[in-house]
Specification:
This protein is mainly alpha-helical. It has one domain. The protein contains 3 helices and 2 strands. The protein has a two-stranded antiparallel sheet. The longest helix has 32 residues. The radius of gyration is 17 Å and the shape is elongated.
């Protein structure tokens, strides 16, 4: 079975790859929405680099201490710990995929994508 730091590293790499792939579609210097209101309009935006690196960095900073702590977990609790880490990692990937999907819809509505 994979170690927790390995899963964390793969998660951050997948998130970064998703952001890099999307970055080709968003013009440089453009501000991208970070949040939408109930009326489907952006409530605040961030520069492209910050918008696309936010989730990978957040995942790295929150998952790394968690995965390092797994090295000191009792042997009978390792499976539970890894399952929780896998769930949180998949949640990060799903949330980032949703954000990038919403960004692509927004770009099309702006005539950019």
């Amino acid at each position: 079975m994979f170690s927790a730091p390995f899963v964390t590293g793969i998660t951050v790499l997948v998130l970064a790859a998703m952001s890099l792939a999307f970055a080709r579609r968003a013009p440089a210097g453009m501000k991208l929405p970070m949040q939408w209101g109930l009326d489907r309009r952006p409530t605040w935006s961030a520069p492209r680099g910050i918008a696309l690196s936010f989730t990978p960095l957040l995942a790295a900073f929150t998952l790394m201490p968690f995965s390092l702590a797994s090295l000191w977990v009792e042997p009978d609790q390792r499976l539970t710990f890894r399952l929780v880490l896998a769930f949180v990692s998949l949640a990060y990937i799903a949330a980032h995929a949703l954000h990038l999907y919403l960004l692509s819809r927004w770009l099309r509505s702006q005539g950019e994508g």
